[in-house]
């Protein structure tokens, strides 16, 4: 019996992307086999983290890397590392940050909410978020103003479709911080495909999710400067105890990194493009739908199917269509569209052909000729 039947759980088709409330991603066979094997073994966890350090450094072209529980904890621990370095006294004192640099400067539009506000992940370390600029935009001068405080621990930038407003290039923001000797952390949770590019901005630490496109079990990956990564690892004797990676997560990350390295990117991209092109052609023939391929807004290497809904023809707006898809069985979860548009943006990356057929069939039922 399958897990859904055994526990009475809703069957899902996830066209919402690597979304935490529906279980994020599918792991490949290599990851599943490695994780299953890890569960019945003992390891010297230091050695396992050393192996992950080497693998992540190679993967990202970074000095060092480590694995923590998830990206939310990676943000907290990266901030903590900037505050404490490897000082055992400071690490033991957190989240009481008395006497430490504790201001974490971030552009207002980067104060995202990925299920909780990122500023809460900052505050968990005992740090104080300091927003600069407005939701609509920030400039180098805004950064300069925020970074001129005497108690700055780091600059935090986010690379995600959740980010709002216009701003300076990431590499310029990093340069502004570095001129003041302030380290920079970039949260690039779903951006594992772009990890080298994010590091290429000069950022000192980059956090990405293991369980999003990489397809490992839940894990937060932190890569960057060796001293700061060491300070992240040192948090395990402090607040990081509650945010540690399990043995099966670290083994799963190692297997997922190997799978990614073996992936033929050109063939994979072509496969994604073909899936989207076919879907767009068929969905575009439905009543009240105009369909096109839409590039990922954050520069990920695949397109999404953009479905523009004409409520006057289809009898429902995009939100109602999304709700109707979710209400069916299986329950179909679709990414919502760009702001101000009557649009849905199904993401097809992890879906099997039968699941894509099921989405098209359901759309056909909801939008009859
Ligand atoms: C998903 C996400 C996170 C949190 O990642 P977890 O690994 O689920 O903790 C943080 N930041 C952004 C921008 C995200 O999209």
Name its key features.
369 residues; alpha/beta; Aspartate Aminotransferase, domain 1; Aspartate Aminotransferase, domain 2; 2 domains; 15 helices; 12 strands; binds pyridoxal-5'-phosphate
Order of helices and strands: HEHHEHHEHEHEHEHEEHHHEEHHEEH
- Work out the helix count: 15
Query: What's the assembly state of these chains?
Result: single chain
Task: Give Rg in angstroms.
Answer: 22 Å
Named CATH architecture of the largest domain: 3-Layer(aba) Sandwich
> What structural class do the secondary elements suggest?
alpha/beta
CATH topology of the largest domain: Aspartate Aminotransferase, domain 2
- The total number of structural domains is 2
Helix content: 40-55%
Overall mean pLDDT stands at: 97
CATH class of the largest domain, named Alpha Beta
CATH superfamily of the largest domain: Type I PLP-dependent aspartate aminotransferase-like (Major domain)
The N- and C-terminal alpha carbons lie at a distance of 38 Å
| Number of E strands | 12
Largest sheet: 7 strands, mixed
Characterise the protein shown here:
- With 369 residues, this protein is α/β, with parallel strands linked by helices.
- It folds into two domains: 3-22 and 264-366, Aspartate Aminotransferase, domain 1; 42-262, Aspartate Aminotransferase, domain 2, CATH 3.40.640.
- Helix content is 41%, strand content 16%.
- The chain has 15 helices and twelve strands.
- It has helices at residues 3-7, 29-39, 45-60, 71-84, 88-93, 118-123, 140-147, 170-179, 195-199, 226-234, 247-262, 265-283, 311-314, 318-327, 353-366, and strands spanning 12-15, 64-68, 103-107, 128-132, 152-158, 184-187, 205-209, 220-224, 289-295, 303-309, 331-334, 343-344.
- The strands form three sheets. The protein has a seven-stranded mixed beta sheet, sandwiched between helices.
- Helix 2 (29-39) packs antiparallel against helix 11 and helix 7 (140-147) runs parallel beside helix 8 (170-179).
- The longest helix is centred in the C-terminal third of the chain and has 19 residues, at 265-283.
- The chain is globular, with a radius of gyration of 22 Å.
- Pyridoxal-5'-phosphate (PLP) binds at residues 20, 70-72, 112, 114, 158, 160, 162, 187, 189-190, 209, 220.
């Amino acid at each position: 019996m399958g897990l859904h039947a055994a526990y009475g759980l809703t069957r899902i088709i996830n066209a919402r992307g690597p979304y935490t409330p529906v279980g994020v991603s599918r792991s490949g066979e290599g990851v599943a086999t490695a994780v299953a094997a890890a569960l019945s073994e003992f390891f010297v966890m230091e050695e396992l983290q050393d192996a992950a350090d080497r693998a992540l450094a190679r993967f990202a072209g970074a000095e060092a890397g480590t694995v923590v529980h998830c990206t939310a904890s990676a943000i907290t621990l990266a901030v903590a590392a900037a505050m404490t370095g490897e000082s055992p006294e400071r690490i033991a004192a957190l989240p009481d940050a008395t006497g430490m640099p504790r201001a974490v400067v971030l552009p207002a539009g980067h104060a995202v909410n990925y299920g909780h506000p990122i500023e809460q992940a900052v505050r968990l370390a005992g740090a104080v978020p300091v927003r600069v600029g407005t939701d609509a935009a920030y400039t180098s001068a805004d950064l300069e103003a925020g970074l001129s405080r005497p108690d700055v621990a780091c600059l935090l930038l986010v690379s995600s479709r959740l980010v709002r407003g216009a701003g300076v290039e990431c590499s310029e923001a990093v340069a502004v911080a570095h001129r003041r000797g302030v380290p920079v952390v970039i949260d690039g949770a779903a951006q594992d495909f772009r990890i080298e590019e994010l590091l290429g901005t000069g950022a000192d630490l980059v956090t990405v999710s293991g369980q999003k496109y990489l397809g490992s079990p839940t894990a937060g990956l932190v890569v960057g400067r060796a001293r700061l990564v060491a300070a992240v690892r040192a948090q395990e004797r402090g607040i990081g105890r509650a945010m540690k990676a399990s043995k099966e997560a670290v083994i799963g990350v190692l297997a997922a990194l190997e799978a990614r390295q073996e992936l033929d990117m050109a063939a994979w991209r072509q496969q994604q493009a073909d899936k989207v092109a076919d879907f767009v052609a068929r969905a575009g023939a439905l009543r009240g739908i105009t369909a096109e391929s839409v590039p990922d807004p954050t520069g990920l290497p695949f397109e999404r199917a953009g479905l523009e809904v004409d409520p006057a023809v289809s009898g429902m707006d995009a939100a109602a269509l999304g709700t109707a898809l979710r209400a069916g069985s299986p329950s179909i979860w679709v990414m919502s569209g760009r702001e101000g548009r009557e649009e849905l943006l199904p993401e097809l990356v992890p879906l099997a052909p039968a699941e894509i057929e099921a989405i098209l069939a359901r759309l056909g039922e909801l939008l009859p000729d």
